[in-house]
Amino acid sequence: MKRYGRWLIGLLTVALLAALGIRVAGNYQKKQRATTEATQSRELPIHVSGQEVIAAQPRAMALTVPASGVVQAVHSAVVKAYVAGELRGLTVREGDAVKKGQLLARIDATEVDARWRQAQQQADAARAQLAIAQRQHDNNQALVKKGFISDTALATSRANLDAAQANLAAAQAAADGARKSVRDTAITSPMNGQVAQRFVQTGERVGVEARIVEIVDPSQLEIVVQLAPADSVQVRVGQMAQLQVPGAAADLAPVQARVARINPSAQAGSRTVTAYLSMLPPTPAEGSKNSSSLLLADMRPGLFLQGFIVTGQAEQLALPLTAVRTDRPRPYVQVLQPDTAEGKPGNEPGSAAFQRVAHRFVQLGRQTSLDGTTWVQITSGLAAGSLVLGGSAGGLREGTAVIVDEAAAPAPSGSSPGGR
């Protein structure tokens, strides 16, 4: 009996020690877990405004190609000197209006005047020689009939008469050319317009074909644009275009133009194709701050313009070009996806649910513009209705937690970009 009691006491002691050890181990594990949770860094989601989130939706887009070119006058002329000499009386300067036939300057006519008088005198001498040859021939004809001279002498006099007539014609032609040179000393305007450039000054000696002034007609202007090879195949005569002076005021409407002509051949070096755009009459919009009429009136030959040519319309999924990131080998967008997992920091009951950033590679199409923002077609890689972070949100690592502030909704997707 005593021995059985000792065994029972030993077993109870072991059981108590085991229970105490289990309890101590449990408390230690709880402390370790609490310490780990206390030291573990909590994930802090990034807050973004709803204006930085774009809902990808199909949009009716105006398909465009970029166009930049220079304004030039349809009618222009470079006035040159047709005779050499000292230039006198050139008073017109850049910007002065001139009329067709207006005298612009004169070239000293001393030399050409002397040559004209010389040619006239030579013509008079040839005319006198012709008169002598004519009388001699008439006399020989009478003598032949009477038998005093032979037919050979008559033929000789006839040849002398023909030679005298030829000499007179040559001398008269030389006199006419000299007279024209005298007229060419007066430099006149070949058209109505304005002086665009003045190349020489009064008192300078100019040679033949020397440029004097350039005259342009600012009432008829066109825009000469150079199209890239890939863009040129999409441009047709009659398509509309909008162009603006770089740096112009935002409230100044762009110039409306139409493709009038396309060069049938490409440039040998750059392979670009030249297109000619005719400016259209202004159509001021009622209630607008400004109209293209002001800009069209201020157009000058030589101005550089930038814009686009509208080549068609298409219904296509589109995003602002700034939302497409290119810091990886392929273009991609940052898509927001709901994170519904439980037990993660930020998803506890009563907290604002957040979303995760996912990167989606996309295939880009053609570009267009609306209100100064460039839009690009998304041909593949993105589903309609996806929420995409705009460019102002910056680059975020894939899987980053994001909370969209409810104070601002995602950017509207119903507006359709117009032609750029």
Automatic annotation (TrEMBL):
- Name the coiled-coil region(s): 116-181
Task: Enumerate the spans annotated as Multidrug resistance protein MdtA-like barrel-sandwich hybrid domain.
Answer: 77-206
Show the SUPFAM superfamilies listed in the entry: HlyD-like secretion proteins
Among InterPro entries, the record links this protein to:
MdtA-like_BSH (IPR058625), RND_pump_MFP (IPR006143)
Domain of life here?
Answer: Bacteria
Q: Which UniProt keywords apply?
A: Coiled coil
Matches recorded under Pfam families: BSH_RND
In the record, the note on similarity to other proteins reads: Belongs to the membrane fusion protein (MFP) (TC 8.A.1) family.
Q: What is this protein called?
A: Efflux RND transporter periplasmic adaptor subunit
Which organism encodes this protein?
Answer: Comamonas terrae
